[in-house]
Design goal:
By secondary structure, the protein is α/β, with parallel strands linked by helices. It has 6 domains: 108 residues, GIY-YIG endonuclease; 59 residues; 183 residues, Rossmann fold (3-Layer(aba) Sandwich); 179 residues, P-loop containing nucleotide triphosphate hydrolases (Rossmann fold); 61 residues, no CATH class; 88 residues, Ribosomal protein S10 (Alpha-Beta Plaits, 2-Layer Sandwich). Helix content is 30%, strand content 22%. The protein contains 19 helices and 31 strands. The strands form 8 sheets. A 7-stranded parallel sheet has the order 10-11-9-12-15-8-16, with helices on both faces. The protein has a 6-stranded parallel sheet with strand order 17-27-26-18-25-24, with helices on both faces. The protein has a 5-stranded antiparallel sheet with strand order 2-1-4-3-5. α4 packs across α5. The structure holds adenosine-5'-diphosphate and zinc ion. Adenosine-5'-diphosphate binds next to α7.
């Protein structure tokens, strides 16, 4: 029986799954809900926390078979509803990335405990009489807790150096009393606590920034060399935002950096901001989510995913190190967080600050064409000069056989060491050696699941695939010919450079900074602290060292292989190399020490190397922009990448061809491929790529939608993933 819609109260509900649209549900009697309300919706045998959505304007209310319609199971009325602006944003992102809206909602809801009743958290406080039986451990606890503060149990145990059982014993004895912990996820900040005295140039920049962030949406490109005080300057804009009672979001590219950044915010605003990244516990995520949704979190510092938090009154977005590749997400919903931050700002009438010493070409062009407002900072704070950079021509000053460091570099390291200052060697390659082969038969160790070599990690005594994570012990003999002691490591990784440094400077204290050597964030922070406190003489690191750290004792940066990134032939290789090497060499010579950088290269005449050495950044940008314009590459043209993968090579290739054949004809849009991806197999899946190239003024999404509607549907193991504005072409 068809029931007229007027007789039924139904609402569209968006379930956080890869579904094309919201579904209609019956509203339970007496339920109070509206767009954005969180509810529990049954779908098949499973119940999902989902959000009541809006019916598109002009769409008829549901007219449905009652028997088909299911009712909502629950209404989560103590969870703050998703703000309308978040719904606008979700729809926009879905439309742009071609991801199902439910998947964007899922990103917005990635804090499962936020949807459960908040569990009160208890700590303990020293409030009762001393226990009858004293032990040395108990005495230590009483000493530690004497300050009368409320302690998290595990932290008290750690501080007193006792097992958690000792704390429980004291609770049983009535000496320690359980008390609710205050919520520290969103403490109140003081915008005026510690304003820095700005230099004349900084004051000018701050005034422009404040002008730009005062009334609604505008994008500022804060463009200043490392150490010029960009952070100090945008803190002023944050302070104004907080003073107006609005929320501010600062995105930073690397979680390892958050703790230093949080400490700096705490100094400036009197309390730690709310942090948001993948390193949080589920409980902390849930509390942070709620604090944001309730508007209690005034300042959020987070990774790219923080952009999808449900801010009800966002008044400022800062994207720090806006050029960083970490802002591009490639799995599930693929998006570029810097670009989406501008969209979020536009939709919400909220200003955006993009900050960098080496802006992305995209932002540079936007500033050049007047869409963004350029706010420059030219001088480093105090007298700290920029490092003096030189190229080492490896053809003229080659390293000794079997080593990787030129005598020019090792001499500079020896001088630096003699002066008691620090050196940093940068090589963006983890492990010991990128390739292992048999001297006897030529066998090469390749990953069985991927078209990639197994990388030797000597420290962990194994061979690892950097694409799928497969690992195997390093064998004694060649698996192909059985020869013993015939395996040789080819090329260097950071571990091998560290070995060479150890042989050259046995007395120097060394540290390797690489994500696999310091897999835990706490270890990484400890290593960073040691470097900062000058407990290390020579640091050997991957790109982990490039990002924003402040090493006051660092005088020399040596780039082991400046050409490494240039070999990758993608459209952004030159830009990325320039940014990375500027950033790494920019670590040298802050504060009082004069810094220098030495770039080992086999092509010192390459434009990127020349631009770095001469310090003529603007000339590099001009040339790079001209080349992009010429080639119709972003931001002068649009790209989309279609990646087709499957476990059967022939079927995957055939399907890729069928997809390409279904491409609608269009004058200006080019469909290139399919071609086998450069990384042709990953995790046992064969990969083919199709690249779509369109002029800037074309609606590439509309074209793709048309195409998708007509293309053969993927069957079996075959999957298609679409990446708008791709950054990876492997
Ligand atoms: P950037 O973000 O451009 O790299 P920072 O804001 O981190 O620069 O500043 C670099 C260093 O100089 C920091 O230690 C910062 O505290 C200090 N600094 C910059 N400007 C000032 C200022 N006006 N007063 C005091 N310290 C400053
Ligand atoms: Zn692999």
């Amino acid at each position: 029986m068809l029931i007229p819609e007027t007789d039924l109260e139904t609402v569209p509900v968006l379930v956080p799954l890869a579904l094309p649209a919201p579904y209609d549900y019956l509203v339970p009697e007496d339920a109070q809900l509206g767009p954005g309300s969180f509810v529990v919706a049954p779908l098949g045998p499973v119940k999902y926390v989902a959000a009541v959505w809006r019916r598109p304007e002009g769409a008829p209310a549901a007219t449905v078979l009652r028997s088909k319609l299911r009712a909502l199971v629950d209404v989560l009325d103590d969870v703050p509803p998703l703000p309308a602006i978040s719904m606008d944003f979700a729809e926009w992102v879905a439309g742009y990335t071609l991801a199902p809206p439910g998947m964007v909602l899922r990103m917005m809801m990635s804090a499962s405990t936020a949807f459960q009743p908040p569990a009160p958290r208890y700590g303990v406080r020293l409030a009762g009489p001393p226990p009858e039986r004293m032990t040395p451990a108990r005495t230590r606890v009483l000493e530690t807790a004497r300050n009368g503060l409320i302690w998290v149990k595990s932290l008290l145990a750690e501080a007193a150096g006792v097992s958690p059982g000792v704390i429980d014993g004291l609770v049983d004895a009535g000496t320690l009393v359980a008390e609710p912990l205050p919520d520290t996820i969103a403490r109140e900040l003081d915008p005026n606590l510690l304003r820095a005295e700005l230099t004349a140039e900084q004051t000018k920049a701050a005034e422009r920034l404040l002008h730009n962030t005062r009334d609604g949406f505008a994008v500022s490109l804060l463009d200043g060399v490392t150490g010029s005080g960009k952070t100090e300057v945008y803190f002023q804009a944050i302070a104004e935002t907080l003073a107006r009672g609005k929320q501010a979001l600062v995105m930073i590219p690397e979680i390892a950096l958050t703790s230093a950044f949080l400490a700096r915010c705490e100094e400036r605003f009197g309390a730690r901001p709310t942090e948001w990244h993948s390193g949080l516990t589920q409980s902390a995520r849930g509390r942070a989510w709620r604090a944001v949704a309730e508007g209690r979190a005034q300042l959020v510092v987070g990774a790219r995913s923080a952009l999808f938090l449900p801010f009800p009154k966002l008044g400022l977005i800062v994207v720090d190190e806006e050029h960083d590749q970490a802002y591009k997400q490639e799995d599930r919903v693929s998006y570029q967080a810097r670009d989406m931050a501008v969209v979020r700002g536009h939709l919400g009438g909220c200003p955006v600050i993009l900050s960098s010493a080496t802006p992305s070409i995209e932002s540079w062009v936007n500033a050049d064409q007047g869409r963004y407002r350029h706010v420059p900072l030219r001088a480093r704070y105090k007298a700290a000069g920029l490092p003096d950079l030189k190229a080492i021509d490896m053809r003229k000053s080659p390293p000794e056989r079997g080593s990787w460091l030129s005598p020019v570099l090792t001499e500079a390291m020896a001088e630096t060491l003699a002066r008691g200052e620090q050196s940093l060697l940068f090589l963006n390659r983890r492990g010991y050696a990128p390739l292992t082969l048999c001297r006897n038969c030529g066998y090469r160790f390749e990953c069985p699941n991927c078209s990639a070599w197994m990388v030797e990690h000597r420290f962990r005594h194994r061979l690892e695939c950097h694409h799928c994570g497969k690992f195997a012990p390093i064998p004694e003999e060649c698996p192909a010919c059985g020869a013993e002691d015939s395996l040789v490591a080819c090329g260097p990784g950071v571990e091998r450079i560290a070995e060479e440094v150890g042989a050259l400077f046995p007395e120097a204290r060394r540290a390797i900074l690489s994500s696999d050597m310091t897999p835990r964030i706490s270890d990484l922070r400890e290593t960073l602290r040691e470097i900062e406190d000058r407990e290390v003489d020579i640091v050997i690191g991957t790109q982990l060292v490039a990002k924003g750290h402040h090493f006051p004792g660092l005088a020399l940066v040596g780039v082991v292989d400046s050409d490494l990134g240039l070999a990758q032939g993608d459209p952004r290789a030159a830009e990325r190399t320039f940014q990375l090497l500027s950033q790494v060499t920019g670590r040298a010579g802050r504060e009082t020490i004069a810094g220098r950088g030495l770039l080992q290269t086999y092509m010192p005449e390459h434009p990127v190397i020349e631009a770095l050495i001469s310090g003529d950044r603007d000339a590099f940008y001009e040339r790079e922009i001209a080349a992009r314009r010429e080639a119709g590459m972003p931001p002068f043209g649009r790209l989309a990448s279609l990646l087709i993968s499957g476990t059967d090579r022939a079927a995957t290739e055939a399907h890729s061809r069928a997809i390409a054949r279904a491409a609608p004809p269009a004058d200006k849009i080019k469909v290139l491929g399919p071609a086998e991806a450069p990384l042709s197999v990953v995790r046992g899946r064969y990969r083919y790529r199709i690249l779509v190239k369109a002029p800037r003024e074309n609606d590439i999404q509309a074209y793709l939608r048309l195409w998708i509607a007509d293309m053969p549907k993927a069957r079996g193991s075959i999957r298609l993933s679409i990446d708008i504005d791709p950054y990876t072409f492997l």
